[in-house]
Amino acid sequence: MGAPEPGRFDSSPFIRACRRLTVDRVPVWFMRQAGRSLPEYRAARGPGSILEAIAQPELVAALTRQPVDRYGTDAAIFFSDIVVPAAAVGFGVDVAPGTGPVVADPFRAKRDLQRLRPIEPAIDTPYVIDAVGILIDELKVPLIGFAGGPFTVASYLVEGGPSKNFSRVKALMHGEPQIWHDLMDRLTDLALASLRSQLDAGASAVQVFDSWAGILAPHHYRELVLPATVRLFAGLAESHPGTPTILFGVGTGELLTSMATAGCSVVGVDWRVPIDEARRRVGPGVAVQGNLDPALCLSTWEVAAAETRDVLDRAGTAPGHIFNLGHGVLPDTDPDILGRVVELVHAEARSGVEVAS
Amino acid sequence: MGAPEPGRFDSSPFIRACRRLTVDRVPVWFMRQAGRSLPEYRAARGPGSILEAIAQPELVAALTRQPVDRYGTDAAIFFSDIVVPAAAVGFGVDVAPGTGPVVADPFRAKRDLQRLRPIEPAIDTPYVIDAVGILIDELKVPLIGFAGGPFTVASYLVEGGPSKNFSRVKALMHGEPQIWHDLMDRLTDLALASLRSQLDAGASAVQVFDSWAGILAPHHYRELVLPATVRLFAGLAESHPGTPTILFGVGTGELLTSMATAGCSVVGVDWRVPIDEARRRVGPGVAVQGNLDPALCLSTWEVAAAETRDVLDRAGTAPGHIFNLGHGVLPDTDPDILGRVVELVHAEARSGVEVAS
């Protein structure tokens, strides 16, 4: 494996759009572009848990490359899971197929903090570093590093699994603010160390998936989640200045103005907020990413095409738009539809595209 | 049973707040105030499905009264389920305990429209009319009639049950717009006939639970759901002019301005949108209802009290606020917390409360 060359993708549409620079085409990638919707994924993955798969660098590299090869996306997203760091330090978390992260002994009290010791990526998650290394040698597009946002990871650790009402995590954050603060601190440290190790190994950007932050009222997000998120991005800016960073969650319409102050380069938005409105809320200093409703990719191509054009139209001509879905690719999605979405986005000149004179 | 007296609750805080008139206290009720969180509910309900319970007028009346008696809420919400009309005309829908509505043979094609014939409430749901009649004799507060919004009912009929991604219903609404339009039409007719029968029997107001509308992008809501909703409220205004009407859904931050044009008197909002911002979005001509996060009622009383005051503060002093949760009472809620919330709302003078001179 060669040493990563910092900045080698600086002229790519994805990195330029993250920096709100002009581009020669609107960049596009898809959350969960690697995964069950791809027959080559199902063939390569076989049985076994996703955490087992994530520990195999060659497999991770292959799964990460698959959608780039098939669709010609402008970035690769590292194949991983938001609970990897917590699992690696021994918190006791698994990912159940069809369910998501499950925790046999959920976080309940102050004493559970000690189950979240600092991570040493070279020792605890060498497979992550190795997989990034393989990818850096092979990929012709930027690799986006992967971590869960502190709130979303906390929600799994506290609830014990996916939650409908998030009542336990809310009870903790409101009822035990000091424990909550310490928990956010430890999870921020885990995410920061993991993302730094991916960047050191050669990833060109990172996305923080604080997927469920939208379940919170805006003043609670600002008081109880945003400070940790600010620290996370400040830590990345300190160790890896100039590296594009993306902060994403679903249902975050009321949080966008706060998320835009977190120190990230890009805010990812779901389909509930029209992307023109999202751009207004995040302001001119932050790029936006999104936001085709993934469910519409299960409809006809005509519907997907019309909605893709609608997103491009709303995103407008100002630089700083990365096309994506509003959430992850759904398992039943026809890959051909996604392939045609990529072609369409690339063919239609919109946000930040320099028109040849 | 005596004949209902129209307008007999016109001077009640709930009806006056719906009409954006001054009140002597901020009215409060809770979505799902009748239900599993109450020991007297669990004692009265026994085993058996909720649809069986709903067909027993004396039981429905008792369950509807329980929270009014316990908490002193300013309104009763009719104990029912959003699928009652569809079930009554024989669509084939049940409510599975712990799951929600389930449909063995979901709506898939044009031919399924015939499974949604018009409802004749006196014949198909006499138990609804009978239960309202019992309640009108007994209640000292207004009774709110109950119906599901056309989109939300459609989502269950099309998906076959609760859904995470709503991909089938979205595929239908976008891919088969004529069938979707006809389906909305039939479900609107069902809701309209059911609500009219409840109002004829003596209910003083109605709430339309379009609970999952917030899963839609705003332009899709406006094009594919709002027209049916407008027709529903126009039909109620025609048959029952002046009757307060409430339109509620969760995650509707981006839809509030559209919902406010539906012809309802009140828009119910969840906790994701601060209620001051919700008031700005719905404008001065429509009241608002909400929006304490129900998960916070599972925390300590100190937390619930602080958040209750925060909602009252944000709702401000202008008339037209009905205090409620942002979604239904969660099953694990301590009834004492809810009782104290009612006391607190009644004790604190805010929206529309006339200060004695």
Keyword list:
alpha/beta; 11% strand; two-stranded antiparallel ribbon; homodimer; TIM Barrel; 45% helix
Mean pLDDT of chain A: 96
Number of domains in the coordinates of chain A?
A: 1
Helix content of chain A: 40-55%
State the low-pLDDT regions of chain A, or none: none
Number of helical stretches of at least 4 residues of chain A:
16
Q: Tell me the β content of chain A.
A: 5-15%
Strand order of the largest sheet of chain A: 1-4-5-6-7-8-9
SSE topology string of chain A: HHHHEHEEHHEHHHEHHEHEHEHEH
Task: Describe the protein.
Two copies of one chain form a homodimer. Chain A is built from 16 helices and nine strands. The first copy, chain A, has helices spanning 13-18, 39-45, 50-54, 57-71, 84-88, 121-124, 126-138, 150-159, 167-175, 177-200, 218-224, 226-239, 256-259, 275-282, 301-315, 335-347; strands spanning 76-77, 93-96, 100-103, 143-148, 205-209, 245-248, 266-268, 287-292, 321-325. In chain A, helix 14 (275-282) links the parallel strand 7 (266-268) and strand 8 (287-292). Chain A is α/β, with parallel strands linked by helices. In chain A, the strands form two sheets. In chain A, strands 1-4-5-6-7-8-9 form a seven-stranded parallel beta sheet. The longest helix of chain A has 24 residues, at 177-200. Chain A has one domain: TIM Barrel (Alpha-Beta Barrel). The termini of chain A are far apart. Chain A binds chain B through residues 165-167, 170-171, 174-175, 214-219, 251, 253-254, 271-274, 277, 293-296, 298-300, 303, 310, 330, 332, and chain B through 165-167, 170-171, 174-175, 214-219, 251, 253-254, 271-274, 277, 293-296, 298-300, 303, 310, 330, 332.
